[in-house]
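Q: Give me the 3D complex with magnesium ion.
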Amino acid sequence: MARLELKNLHAKVAEGDEQILRGVDLEVESGEIHAMMGPNGSGKSTTAKVIAGHPAYEGTDGEVLIHLDEDEFGEDFEIPEDKRTWSILELEPNERAALGVFLGFQYPAEIEGVTMTNFLRTALNAKLEEREELFEDDEADADTEEDDADESVPSPMEGPADDGEVGVAEFQEILSEKMEQLDMDEKFAMRYLNAGFSGGEKKQNEVLQAAILEPSVAVLDEIDSGLDIDRLQDVSHGINALRDEQGTGILQITHYQRILDYVEPDRVHIMLDGKVVKSGDASLAEELEDKGYDWVREEVYETA
Ligand code: ADP
Ligand code: MG
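A: Here is the predicted complex, encoded as structure tokens.
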């Protein structure tokens, strides 16, 4: 089990003084689905980007923490007691990913000649390698420079330098299993990265990427936008599979209640003017659908 915790998070744009987040409190545990809703401009995407470490934003107060259990990365990878809670605002985006935080809005660009399969295997190996580095015990540090030097000159017996921990054959098995879980056509993975992908296919890619990386918590920003009903159902099925098959916690940012008919949230949070002002169960999303946000605004500012 892992838990992502936002504690009184304040943030502004990096170039400028405009405060956007004004004290966001939120906790998402593995295996839970949380929906974050709110009017345009309330700070939902900024929350996602600050969690991801997007360079355009700067945390100015509060914390983003990830709490890990000792066996969060499997039984062969025991996390020492002093490395189970990480404050991630100071970490690089790829280090955050290595700790199990997945940010769905980071679309890979179209890159010529790279298949989905290769891209996903490279991403998985990069994550595993980064994780090794983060958890390397300090006593072993003395040896690492030597090791690194060795690695930079791979022996021909070891194959190309980018071979990584998960080899081609092993990865193919992982990929097949995941694509089956997501009900995706295997041909999809043979296509070139994003080349000619429809909006819906890009969203499905996002889910596939999360399935391969097996994050503890995935933040999905408007993954439902622009999807027709069939694609919405496919993507929803995939999101539910992430939770059911690998226990990923989901923070689903959405403007519309519609996707919540298929991905039923355990909790719903309403964001307004850079804060989470109200939380409730799934019925809260239905109430928003009926009544809009004005009543929330009135309630919040009356009691303030
Ligand atoms: P939401 O996703 O809830 O629609 P955003 O997080 O995208 O809202 O934006 C929240 C507020 O912050 C908006 O008023 C937006 O104009 C402002 N904002 C977001 N990013 C930037 C930026 N890079 N530069 C200036 N203002 C920004
Ligand atoms: Mg947004």
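A quick observation: The two ends are 36 Å apart (CA to CA).
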